[in-house]
Amino acid sequence: MRVLTGDIGGTHARLAVVEIGHGRARVVSERSYSSQAASGLAPLVAGFLGGEPDRPASACFAIAGPVVDGRVAGTNLPWAVEARTLGSAIGIPGTRLINDFAAIGFGVAYLGPEALATLQPGVPEARGPIAVFGPGTGLGAGFLLREGDGYRVCASEGGHVTWAPRTADERVLQAFLAKRFGHVSCERVISGPGLVAIYESLTGRVDESAAISERALAGADPAACRALDLFVAAFGAAAGNLALTVLATAGVYLAGGIAPRIIARLCDGPFLEAFLGKGRLAGLLSRIPVHVVMSPDVGLLGAAAAAAGP
After folding, report:
1. Which residues span the domain enclosing 32?
2. What are the pLDDT digits (tens) for 111-150?
């Protein structure tokens, strides 16, 4: 069957028609938009569907933010979405909204080995919990629990838990961010804006996160290298926290827009050292597989699985 899906982040909104069935899913057509430039989701969907000869009967949109009673006001979005109102506006009454990392949780089942880069193979437990985690414009989190023959996907707002600095450099960063924001969540550090803030705290200058990471990966800017190392270490420590919280013995999947772009530093930098740095539980964490999701379509595929239903 064909379903309408969307992966709606704080920066980009991707809409797609996905063919799904028999354990397989593929994107038939898709288009990206600026989330910040749009007046709402319904106009984007209407424009996208204008070019589709056959309107899908089901739709699901994955949105970065907590979905409560079919409504979400995205943490980094300029507008809110309500499922019933949206469904009426786009002519698909059964429209569903889910958290963006819940969509990634649904989408993990549709990823082949070629869509993953493994940081730590571990010793996976076939029926163990799974964690999904990663930075983009914000910091997403979720987990999957075994239920019968499959998994139950659980949304989370774990990216907004209080960040705990571990080193002298991180304590300096925490003080810098606390002066600006008061509460310093993990998302204030482990996100695109977080990398910008880290670099600013080190240099007093503001630059785009993509430019900072590019210079760091090229070894062209010592301050950018230091900023990216602080970012990666914080990312690893927080991923290890989530792995312990849900006891993710079947694996941790790192997703979002940033992880694939800095895969070289995740492989060779301080990520795993920080992930494993949990004292007496380091041995347990060494058995947990850690993968980076390299496919940009995982959220669309997961939203398609949610739209298709059981």
Report:
1. 2-107+297-308
2. 999 999 999 999 999 999 999 999 999 999 999 999 998 9
